[in-house]
Every structure is written in C-alpha cells, then in structure tokens.
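--- STAGE predict ---
source: upstream dedup step, 1 unique chain passed
mode: sequence only
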Amino acid sequence: MPSHYESFGMAALEGLACGRPVVATSAGGPAYIVEDGVSGLHTPPDDPAALADRLEQVLDNDARRAAMSQAARLRAQRFGWETIASDILDVYACTIERSTLACATVVPQREHALLPRN
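--- STAGE serialize ---
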C-alpha cells in the first residue's frame, strides 16, 4: 500500500485478514493497523527505494513471511465487529461513570442543622 495517506486503510485490514503481511506507508490508518515488523512493514511515503526494500524483506525470507502471516490474521481479529463493539461499549461505560461521578462531586452539601427533622 504505497499510499500517500489513508484515513483508515481498509485494504490493509483486508490483506491482514487474508493472512498476508502488508507493506504500507507509515502515514495514516495503515500505520496503526499494520504492526511494523510484526504483521507487516512500514515504509515512508514517496520513497520507491524504501518500498522496494520492504517488499524484498517480506518476499526473500520465508520464515519471516510465515511469522508475519500468522501475526497478520491475529491483528485483523482486533478489528472485528465484536471487538470494536466491545470497545465502544467500554467508552460509553467510562463516559457515563465519569459524568456521574463529576455530577456527584459538584452537588453542594447541605448543612444538617438546616434540614427539617421529622
């Protein structure tokens, strides 16, 4: 993926899900999705020599390519719907908890002497 920029990098994720190490530029989404040296390799944008070098690194080493292929599938699972939905629920739960606690800490305390007794 020699893109100048990708906001998310769906093609990189699809490659990982297929068990393929991905060589992607170190700009935008693919830089987050592809773990450099684990599930693929990063290359600087606009550097054809570096891109060729990274491709050769993957293609010339069967053992490294096999290890990256296995890691690629595992990495892609991190972006499955079940995991993403769980992450979103965690964000909501934390937000609600923080909001509730923040509200509770700003409620003025009443002096007990002023409260009517029943």
